[in-house]
Write a structure and sequence with these properties.
single chain; mainly beta; 7 strands
Length: 117
Amino acid sequence: MSNYSKWTFSKDARTELHDILGLTGAEISINNLPAGAGVPFVHHHKKNEEIYLILSGKGSAVLDGETIEFTAGDVIKVAPAVKRQFSAAADSPVSWACIQVKENSLEEYTNTDGVID
């Protein structure tokens, strides 16, 4: 068994990487919307916060009733209980990665978990 996994980006509307990469501590999805399209539902989570990394394009998100605009390079963190819905701008498709992790679960990170060999 290999100690790493690899996947190449696709243009599918949504790809969840949990099973594809064998993730054990997070869910990551890659999302693509054509210009003018939106996610057809509002959702929130019970335990997991989400981090959205806008990879290309632009759009908007409605977060607890407040609309925010975003563009490539933006990063948005959303707490579990926030009701959310994302849309592409009328004149631009949008692609983003969404990282979903249990809120307050991070015990160590780069400087405390990394080991230089």
